[in-house]
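User: Design a sequence. Structure:
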């Protein structure tokens, strides 16, 4: 079964579906590699203007597949997550995330890297990395731009999942709808985007990036360093093992 489904909805709109429903679309090297390739391919199409990103099954994406995580592939996996976030955020295309079920950790990061997010009412969103002994540095790049420091501290240090309405209140997502209206709401925003001039939209998106003191690329590079320091720690080994063994972690003080 392909881990990514690509549907050309119109010459200007492509729908990309994360397709590991049996694992709640948890991220693997294969899935991330194909996602980056799909976005780059669409970006090279002259008529392409919009990507709608969604998840198959019960959830949008629950982050890194910890069952597949090993010390040997940790660096490659982190590099791919960083590359994916950069690809999503810096493509000339307008990116729309249609989120349902859960968007957690790296899944919430991919969502946050999109230009527009619509979520189904019962969606749960959060960043529980510290409970696995990890540092959510890569997703922090986007959180600091979107929700402000106080809300970022709550999300990352408390690491509780929040509902879609709370996410909308703090600026993490744009719209909350019933699940049946998820794709129609994404399409509605896409239709609005298509009223704009392609060059003006791409220039506006690029200028939004330039207004920040540091670029997304600089933030991702800094975040990658902190992520890898944590990923290679004994806390990360214990946190991931505890998650896979379905037990509380034994944090040694």
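Assistant: Done.
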């Amino acid at each position: 079964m392909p881990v990514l489904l690509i549907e050309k909805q119109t010459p200007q709109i492509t729908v990309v579906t994360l397709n590991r429903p049996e694992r709640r679309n948890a991220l693997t090297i294969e899935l991330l590699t194909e996602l980056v390739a799909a976005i780059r391919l669409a970006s090279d199409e002259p008529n392409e203007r919009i990507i709608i990103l969604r998840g198959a099954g019960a959830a949008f994406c629950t982050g890194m597949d910890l069952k597949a995580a090993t010390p040997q592939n940790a660096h490659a996996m982190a590099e791919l997550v960083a590359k994916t976030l950069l690809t999503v955020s810096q493509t000339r295309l307008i990116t729309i995330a249609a989120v349902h079920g859960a968007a957690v950790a790296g899944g919430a990061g991919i969502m946050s890297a999109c230009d527009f997010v619509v979520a189904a009412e019962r969606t749960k969103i959060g960043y529980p990395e510290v409970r696995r002994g990890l540092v959510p540095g890569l997703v922090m790049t986007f959180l600091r731009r979107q929700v402000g420091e106080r809300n970022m501290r709550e999300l990352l240090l408390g690491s509780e999942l929040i509902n879609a309405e709370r996410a909308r209140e703090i600026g993490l997502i744009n719209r909350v709808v019933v699940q049946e209206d998820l794709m129609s709401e994404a399409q509605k925003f896409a239709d609005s985007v298509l009223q704009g001039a392609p060059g003006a939209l791409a220039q506006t998106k690029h200028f939004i990036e330039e207004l920040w003191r540091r670029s997304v690329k600089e933030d991702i590079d800094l975040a990658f360093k902190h992520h890898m320091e944590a990923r290679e720690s004994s806390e990360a080994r214990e946190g991931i093992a505890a998650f896979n063994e379905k037990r509380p972690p034994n944090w040694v003080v």
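The chain has a mean pLDDT of 92. Residues 4-178 form a domain with the 2-enoyl-CoA Hydratase; Chain A, domain 1 fold (CATH 3.90.226.10).
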